[in-house]
Amino acid sequence: MSTGDQGQYGQFLLSRLGEFYQERLLCDYVLKVNEEKFEVHKVVLAGCSDYFRALFTHGMRESRSNMLQLDGLDTMAMRQLINFAYSGKLHLNLDNIENVLSVASFLQMTSAMELCSSFLKSNITFDNAEKLSALAETHGLVKVNQYKKKYILDNFYEFSQTDQFLKLDAKTLADYLADDSLKTTTEARLLKCALRWYDHDPEARKNVAHSVFEKIRFTLDGWPTIEYAQEREPFKSNINGCMEILNYASNYMQNASRKHLYQCNRTRVRYTRKTLVQIGGEHHIMYSYGDELAGTLVGYTHNHYFHLDNQRWFPLGVVGTFDSRSHCVFMEVNDFGILIGGYLYSWVTLPQAQKFPTNEVKLFVPGGFALWDMPYMLEDRAHHAAVRIGDFLYVAGGMGHDAFLSSVERFNMREEVWEYVTSLPSSLIDHAAAECQNKMYVSGGIEGNSDVGTDKVQVYDPETNRWSTVNKMLTGRLGHTMTKVGDRLIVCGGRLDDQSPRCLITVEAYSPSTNQWTYISPLRNDTSYMAAVVLEEKLLILGGVNSVQDHLQSIQQYDPELDKWTLYGSLPTPLGSFGCCALTVKMTENGQEDTDSVMDAYNVWPSGSEPGSDEEDHEVQDAIAVLNLQNGL
């Protein structure tokens, strides 16, 4: 048995029904709208209008008659909609849209209303936006108002140059300025727009000035925009308490190492999505040594963020190149990045580059791409692990200058003080840690003088300052990752021991509620010493080293709903042992940091360090040049 399908049959049937309507064939109902009569077919009306379907099928009195009188509706609009019922075509313009939409809404013609909605969205301009959005709101077309707001937010500067902008009430303008999706080059540009609005009628707006200007995120531009505002009303005379806004921003700027504690609507980056930020890492470089070409592992000096729309990596402005480091922890705290410890590299000793652990702690500020020193740890350490629990950062184990560490220290972010807490039961490196249920879970790693990755999972409880254990992993491992995804801890890859380069592909998940480990879908590639980040509810495994000791460039993505791994993208270069976390970074269309006349006037960017520039890795290149010179090359 086979089934035939004439692909154009629906269009043929609609065309035939249209002919019946035009020729008044087999019509079984009459609509009288004001003084005009329309001979129609019940089945066609019921098919495109919920109003008529209910009328004809629910036993109403009108269904037993062959005519319906409809007064008060626009006759031309009714003719348009009846033609639409028989053709699927609706001819709209700005002169008839209001009447057509009114009748379509009354008759509950959903398809016609959707066409009206699309027409309104495609014809919105700054001049008619308020009128068309009010019309849409009257008839419940929510998408039109959403589109209107997006249209204004996407083109805010152009909108700010119109007369309609100057007529906005304070609440509407404040709502626009508070929106994370508002597109602007800088906050300085938004400030100038708001000042133009204020100067249009300062007497009427002086009592609402604070509610508008507090939505400008002065801290993202920093001192130039603050100083620019200080010279202008309503700030200069502190009208409506507007100097409080600048004082708040100034205090925030002066407490550089505490910015992460004061994240709020006035300070957060104006963007709607988090993205990946990479710091440091370890990679291979090649150089000439005598008559031979040789290679060595060195720290990576370039730092990047990932542009989600362009699917490209861009340098972190003036933080794009700085000290070479690897085996560090880079973690998110209140949408700031905190960089903890790791190896720093010395370039003067090629071909064997020296590295030494550090106790440095730095705060990365996504709004402005800046690094600020925070109080340093009590000990130098690399190959360590760290988590955040409440107002504390906990750092466990790692490698010191000449020994494995068992010590654990915590940083009180409010008091800005480091202190020791109970040490690990044994010294540990290349382990992984994650926060779960306000406790620090530490898995795997190398204990003491062993070369084999342990399968132990140890748990630190800050309330009791004690360590305990839970069920062991199914596989002992080191150089792996452990990440909290939903209500589970997911452990990926790593190595069995430190003597063999063989890397693992296995992935296992731990349920704290059952205290059980289970294998889930394996990685696409065998990987160790990689980074793990949760982005938009997916787990990303970035870079790492494989079993033949090649550094990887790929980014693997795990969907916990599907238990499936896919390829997400690539790093800017093959890389391992680097820091990475998800932060909100402002992304422009071309991936470069924007500026404008206000910022330029205050010389905010030092010469030669404009954000977005991708400088060469000068220290590495200079060291290689010196080595080549010493070898007569």
UniProtKB/TrEMBL annotation:
Name-wise, this protein is Kelch-like protein 9
In this chain the BTB domain maps to 27-94
The reply on keyword rRNA-binding is no
Q: Name one Pfam family in it.
A: BACK
Question: Which SMART domains does the UniProt entry name for this protein?
Answer: BACK, BTB, Kelch
Entry keyword annotation includes Repeat:
yes
UniProt xrefs under PROSITE patterns? BTB
Please state the span of the N-terminal signal peptide per the UniProt entry. Answer: none
Keywords in UniProt for this one?
Kelch repeat, Repeat
User: What species is given as this protein's source?
Assistant: Lingula anatina
The organism's lineage is:
Eukaryota, Metazoa, Spiralia, Lophotrochozoa, Brachiopoda
